[in-house]
Amino acid sequence: MLDVLIIGGGPAGLSSAVYAKRAGLSVTVLDKGASECQITKATEVENYLGFKSISGIDLHAQFVEHAKSQEIPIIKKSVVSVEKTEEGFKVFTKKDEFECKHLILAMGRSHKHLGVEGEDRLAGAGVSYCATCDGFFFRSKMVSVIGGGDSAVSQAIYLSAFCEKVYLIHRRDEFRAANYLVERAREKNNIEFVLNATVNEILGDNCVAGVSITQGEETRTIACDGVFGAVGEKPNMSFVIDGLNISPQGQIITDKYCRTNINGLYAVGDIRDRDVYQIITAVADGALVVEGILKE
Ligand code: NAP
């Protein structure tokens, strides 16, 4: 039986693994794959200490390399269910079963949908949620980015480097994104801010042709070839754990050592209920959770 099993190989999961291993605990990470991990969608990270500027993909690759250098197994498996036992937990994937004394949930969050007509129908045909993954297809084209947080503004900046024009469509005239990002976006002469605007529909037959927006009294169409949704995130909780305390937003409630209300069960990173969702806060959870395990 493993001392620690971690579900999720993002910054929080891998940091927890490194801390657990260095505390002398046996540890394994189960991970769906890098494409599921939010950090790999960050175009440019400039606030992770020690790296003045690095892409999310490269930073994640360094985290994986660090964990592997400690001989921590990272197994590509998707968890389908979890069962509490007397000694700890049984974790089931489609074909395998793992047993552990302590289980750490580190599945992170994934993008929310806009919930407008045309979004699902044109997914993969011009609708995307990841500029780093799909931006390449829109070289010299017109795109719209929807949202007003760090993700939306940084995706708009990234796309502005090679797209003809980027419309940054936000429902208010104030941004949730960091000021330095908004200022940087304002300096780009091919980013147009479309503020106080509600998206009604994504238009197009077989591929995106534009977005219908309403601004005040006026409803109009912005012609574009691609639409990048960046309207926030939701926790990745694809299996149920009976009795687990979660917030109304679906985030797992923990104490300062990332302990949930279930003995031996922990949650780290963006899946837990917290005020700040940053790579550095997710990584810091690795130290906290292992402290919690050692106190058990
Ligand atoms: P976010 O901060 O929650 O922002 C979501 C944005 O989408 C908000 O501006 C919101 O508008 C808007 N929105 C929500 N629902 C909408 C809808 N149905 N239609 C139109 N607009 C809608 O999400 P995020 O930008 O994905 O960031 C998530 C977390 O990751 C944040 O804590 C962020 O700081 C962090 N992050 C950090 C970095 C980094 O490099 N440091 C990069 C990306 C993300 P309102 O403002 O009106 O609510």
Question: What would you say this structure looks like, in words?
Answer:
The protein has helices spanning 11-22, 56-69, 131-134, 150-160, 179-186, 279-295; strands at 2-7, 27-31, 74-76, 79-84, 89-93, 97-105, 109-111, 127-128, 142-146, 165-169, 191-194, 197-203, 210-215, 218-223, 226-229, 233-235, 265-267. By secondary structure, the protein is of the alpha/beta class. It folds into two domains: 2-110 and 233-295, FAD/NAD(P)-binding domain (3-Layer(bba) Sandwich), CATH 3.50.50.60; 113-229, FAD/NAD(P)-binding domain. Helix 1 (11-22) packs parallel to helix 2. The radius of gyration is 21 Å and the shape is elongated. The two termini are 17 Å apart. The mean pLDDT is 95. The structure holds NADP nicotinamide-adenine-dinucleotide phosphate (NAP).
